Amino acid sequence: MKSSLVAISAAVVVATLVTGLKDRAALQERFGLGSAGKPAPELMMMGRIKPTDASAGNPEFNAQLVADKIEAITSPSSPAPDTPEPNAAAPQPAAPQSAAPQTAAQRAPVAPPIVSAPPALQQAAAPAQPAVDESALRYFASRGDKVRLQAEISRLQALYPNWVPPADPLAVPQNGDKQLEAMWQLYSDGRYAELRKAVADRQAADAGWQPPADLLDRLDVAEARARLVNASDLKQYATVVDIAAATPSLLTCSEVDVLWRVAEAFIQTERAQRGQDAYTYILKNCTNPAERQATVEKASTLLAYQPMQALLTLERPAADGSKEFDAIRDNLARRFMAEGNDDTKLVIAADYVARLEKLAETEGLASDALLLGWYQLRRNNDADAEKWFRAARAKQDSAAASQGLALALIARKAPEEAEDVMFRWRADSEDATSTYLAATANLMALQPPADLAEDVLHRIATEVIARKYVPTAQQFGWYARSLNQFQTAARWFETALAWKPDDEPSAYGLVITREQLSDRKGVLDLQRAWAGRSSRITNLEDTSSLSPNAVPPPLEKGALAVQQPAQPTQRPPTEPLPAERRVTLQPGSEVVVRAARPAMETVTVPRGPRQTRGCSTTIDAGQLEPADALSRGWCLMDINRPMEAISAFEAALQSPTRKVREDAAYGQSLAYLRAGLSGNAAVAATKAPQNRQRAAELQVAILADRALSAFDAGRYRETLIYLDQRAQLQQERIDLMVLRGYCYLNLKMYGDATRIFEAAAATGSRDAVRGLADVRNVTHPDVND
To answer: Which residues, if any, are the signal sequence (predicted)?
Structure first.
């Protein structure tokens, strides 16, 4: 009697639970299981998406045991005489019999758990399961597809946080719908278009049949994944983000390739922080060691140094006490040092510098020594730079190693060795040529003059004439004067002026040399030509101190500075755009075009007695008459002192004469442009009315300067806008066409870049030819290798 009462009571409880499942919301509220609504994942809200650890939601679920059981069941074997058909449901152990009749729920077969739960868990009431379509789970289990089975479990856990995977998916009876099985097979094979047609055909034939919602959901997700991957391959990054936003179920650890592509899309659409968030999510939640390491490697090619340090703090310790990313830390150090070479303000942690130094010493790679050499040279550590460049040349004498060593030698005032080091590589590239010529200019300018062998002088002179390099030609003139060879000096000064007629130091050297040669007519011709432009030439009086036996005064220290690629020196709008550009490639990385390392510039101060008239002295321009201030402003512009010229022109703007004010406004605009202040130049141009020709000339110069500034700052779309505006006023110069081509290259518009470079190359531009090579390096790196 007692057993009958117990059975009846159990039946009542089961019936109550079955009835309660019909109102899941009420049941969840009753037992405190949370909201009945399914949480909707948000795009890239990484902290809200659960990890893909399948065992997190079910202490009884053991993925390895399930995989083993799948493999055992699906492996071919000889069927026993009593073995049922493969499609038949496996027989289940009978439930314990009781005296009372069994309910429908009690008569259902119960799958034995793969891993037995502790007694306390077995006795506890199981939480209410959400209504989840598990047909895909059963299908992948029956086919032995362990990878898709695990991915399906991860997907369902992300969509239904309260869902617990079945302990044994194989124990769930399979349906006998052969057509549906065929549809799942099409899905498994990735034949999505055929699957869509099969569903439509069956619905047309059987109006009452509806495909499983999970099949349609998974088909939508699979097609979205295919579209996302295709958009990523085509560099359509905005589309990648849009698809990911519409399909949040793709953003899980089981789809780590999708997460990588979304992170790249964010970074390429100038949302680097969102891209960093995606990588952070992977490192915080995903556990696959190979995928975690690949994540760091991919991130290092797209993120800057500082964001990468934040990602590396998520590194997990290994069981042997080492660090998770030790295998790739050497390459990370190389990548960070290369970034430090491009940005002189970036301070790389001492650990990375020390690691690369150790690598350079132990592995002996010239490339590592070069990275260290350029890093130290950029930071004016000339002694350390020289050490590493010499080490690189000892391993492999290359143009880059020789160029770096030459720059370090010039910095420590050893131009003779610098010239010797670079002579072999002088024609390797434009950078190498510029460095060699800079070394020759500094060598010829040494005080006291260097005792150079005849063959060295001959080879320097040959290169200078071939390249028409004015600074060294001018220094040859001063060098010849120091040897009392005044006829030779005059010819060198004349040569320099022929190459650059506005080179005032060469003109000054020529005028004093002609004076000493008693060429009075030649002196007067030069004075007339430079009247109003150089007071020391027009006011030349006493040259007794420059007699043939006199020792010339020492050359004042020139300004020697290595221009950095991240912050190029601003140039007057009349100067051509430098052509040095290079492409940095790393396997699998996004390509970025940056300015190359410009060669050393040599600024020389002309020899001769100082003059007290003209604009050689510093005075307050406000104390001058407007007309005198205007003349002083142009004089200061001639000797390249634009900031002082700005003040002189400002004083000239106070003139009551309209012509003086117009000239002053025009001159001040040019001075601002030469100083790299295009915004101020535009304001200055409005201070006095300008004729149409001058207004157009200033506008063209201002737009060109703004285009250069925008390009140097990496704002390539803005650069194109300024170039388009300038092109409406004046035909585009070849150097600006090359600049436009590099803008297109940086914006990944390779077809437009090729078209521009080809057009410019047809004019004989070497810069454009280099641009075409850069495009080929980006678009066909394997071919160029």
So the answer is: none
Q: What is the C-alpha separation between 38 and 160, in angstroms, rounded? A: 6
Name residue, tokens 């952070």: 280
Residue with tokens 């902290």: 47
Q: pLDDT, tens digit, for every residue of 114-125?
A: 333 344 434 444
Share of the chain above pLDDT 90, in %: 23
CA 593 – CA 582 distance, rounded (Å)? 6
List phi, psi (to 5°) of 317: -70, 145
Q: Which amino acid is at 305?
A: Y
Q: Are 85 and 191 in contact (CB under 8 A)?
A: no
The end-to-end CA distance of the chain, in Å, is 89
**Can you tell me whether residue 583 is helix, strand or coil?**
strand
**What does the buried/exposed string (b/e) look like for 487-516 if buried means 16 or more CB atoms within 10 Å of the residue's CB?**
ebbbbbbbbbbebbeebbbbbbbbbbbbbb
- C-alpha dihedral, 534 to 536 to 540 to 544, nearest 10°: -150
**CA-based nearest residue to 359, from 321, 397, 395:** 395
Q: Any idea where the domains of the chain sit in the sequence?
A: 468-540
Residue 765 identity = S
pLDDT per residue as tens digits for the range 376-428:
998 888 899 999 999 999 998 899 999 999 999 999 889 999 999 999 998 98
User: What single letter denotes the amino acid at residue 472?
Assistant: T
Length of the chain: 785
Q: What are the tokens at 516?
A: 């000493």
The Cα–Cα gap between 12 and 23 comes to 18
Structure tokens at 142: 């029956």
CA-wise closest residue to 597 among 344, 774, 372: 344
Tell me the C-alpha distance between 481 and 490, whole Å: 9
Task: Give the C-alpha separation, 730 to 695, whole Å.
Answer: 13
What is the block-wise mean pLDDT of the chain (785 residues), using blocks of 10 residues? 46 42 38 37 39 41 50 45 38 37 37 36 49 70 74 76 74 62 75 79 79 75 87 92 88 90 93 93 90 91 91 84 84 89 87 90 89 91 91 90 93 91 90 93 88 89 93 92 87 94 92 89 91 86 41 34 30 32 32 36 35 59 82 82 82 84 85 76 76 77 84 88 84 87 90 88 84 87 61
Architecture of the structural domain at 468-540: Alpha Horseshoe (1.25)
Q: Could you tell me which residues come within 8 angstroms of residue 780 by beta carbon, excluding any fewer than 6 positions away?
A: none
> At 592, which helix (H) or strand (E)?
strand 592-595
Q: What are residue 323's phi and psi, to 5 degrees? A: -105, 155
